[in-house]
Amino acid sequence: MEQAYFAGIDSSTQSSKLLIIDTGAGEVVHSDAVHYDTDLPEFETVNGVVQGLPEGYSESNPHMWIRALEILFERLQKSGLAVHEIRCMAVSGQQHGLVTLDAKGQLTRARSKLWNDFSTGEECRLLTKAVGGPEAMIGEVGNSQRTGYTAGKIFHLARHEPEAFRRTAVCFLVHNYINWWLTGGVASMEPGDVSGMALWHPGRREWSQKALRAISPDLHEKLPPVLPSDRSIGAISPDLAEEYGFSPHCKIDAGSGDNMYGAVGTGNVAPGTVTISLGTSGTAYTVLEQPFIDPQGEIAAFCDSAGKHLPLLCVSNLANGYNAILKQYDLKHDEFNRIVQQTPAGNQGRVLIPWYMGERTPDLPAATPVYFGFGLNDFTREILCRAVLEGHVLNLYDGFRKMPVRAREIRLTGGLAQSPAWCQTIADIFNCETVPVEGEGAALGAALHAAWVYYKENGRAVELKELIRPFVRLREDLRCKPIPEHVAVYDQMKAVFSALSGRLRAVPGSDDPFVLRMEGLDS
User: Distance between the two ends of the chain, CA-based, in angstroms?
Assistant: First the structure.
C-alpha cells in the first residue's frame, strides 16, 4: 500500500487527541494531546467538567473542544509533517453528550450535558411512562431510558429551558458537532453514536416516533439525517484548509462514538474478541453480526461503525475510585501494584460496592459506595487498595455476565490497561486471557476508519481487519492468563457481589435507600 496519511481525532471527557497514521509504512507518524484542565485553564474544569454545578450535573463548554482542536492543528502545522497529504480524517467523540445550535450556528445552551450527567432521572421516568413503561420503551428504542443517554438531556432542556429549546435548530452529539465545525456546516449523524441517544432503534435503524413526540412534537425537525457510518460526509472547510495547511480535498469521515472506534483501534472487528476500556468510565463490548436487545436494558444495544452491532456494558465508576485512593495515600501506579500484592485475592471476604458517583449499570443515579465485610480495623491502606481494585472489576463483571458472548480474548485499552494489577485481576475475575493494546485505541480506530472509508470511496476497497493488522500492537509482556486458585476465589466473590448489588436496589414497592439518603441531605 502506498504512503498515505490519515488522521484520527478523539474528543474525550478530559482531553482531545490527534493521531496520524501512514498506511504505507504501517506506522503512527504523529501523536499529540491537549488536556483541558491544564492546557485550557480559562474553561475552569476539573477532569474536563465545569465546577460549581449542583450534585449530579456534569457539563462542559463545547467551545473548549473546538479550542483544543485549534491548538492541535496549530502544533501539527509546525511539526514538519506534510499536512496537505492527509487524505481523510475521522472524529471519535465521547458518547451521549448533547450540543444544541440555533439556525445561525450559535449555541443555544452554553454548556453540554455529558455522558456522566445524572440530572435527568425525572425526565427518563416521564419518557418511559409516556411510551408505556420499561418494556415498551425497549421495544421502541432497543434500550431503556437512562440518565447517561441523550434523550433525557433533550427532554430536560425542553422542560427546564423552553426558550433555549425553542431556538434550537439542531441537536448534535459531540462528534457530530465537531464534524459540523470541520466541514463548515454539514449536519449529520451515523448509526453507531446515534444508537446511544435512546431515540433510535439500532435493530430496525429508525427513529421512535413515540419517544420523539413524548419530548416535543417538533423534535424530529431538530435532528440531522442518519447517514451510513462507512462514508465521508464532505470535505474539510476551505477556511480550515487555508489556515492549517490541509488539502481542500481532505475528506471528513462520518465519525462515531469512542466505543465504536475503540473497537476498531483494538482489533475488535469480528465476533469472539471483547474490548474492555479502563478510563473515567469502564466499558466492555464485542462485535456481533445481529443486534442484541437486552430485555432489561442494562446491556446497551449499539451499532458499530462498520455495519455490524456492538452490544456494550458501561459502568460510570472506574478510574474515579482508583484515582481517589492514589491521591489519599499519595501513591504512584507502581506502588499501588506492589501494595496489592500484600493482600490475598478475594480480600478475605471484604467487598466494596464502588458506586462513588451514582451508577449507570445498575441504573442507580443516586447510589453511594458500600463497604461489606469490613471490621473496625480493616480500613488499612493495603486492604482498601485491593478492595477498590476488586470492587471496580467485580462491578464491571456483574453487568458483563449478561453479554451474549464467550470471549476468546479480552483486549484492554485506556489509562489503566498497562497496570499489571488490573490486567491480572480482570483475567482472574472474567476467567479469560487479557492483553493490553498499545497506544490510544479510540484515536487510532478513528484514523484507521478514515483510511478504510477513503479507500472504499476511491475504488480500492480493503477489508478493515487487514487494514488494522499492522497498527494494532499487543503488549505481550503484560498478557495475563487466569490463575486457577484465584478463579475459584473470585467465583464465590462474584456471587457475593451480585447478591449485594441485588439487595441494595429498591425492591418493587419499596423506597430506594439512595434516593432517601439524598433527600435527607437536601432537607
Answer: 66
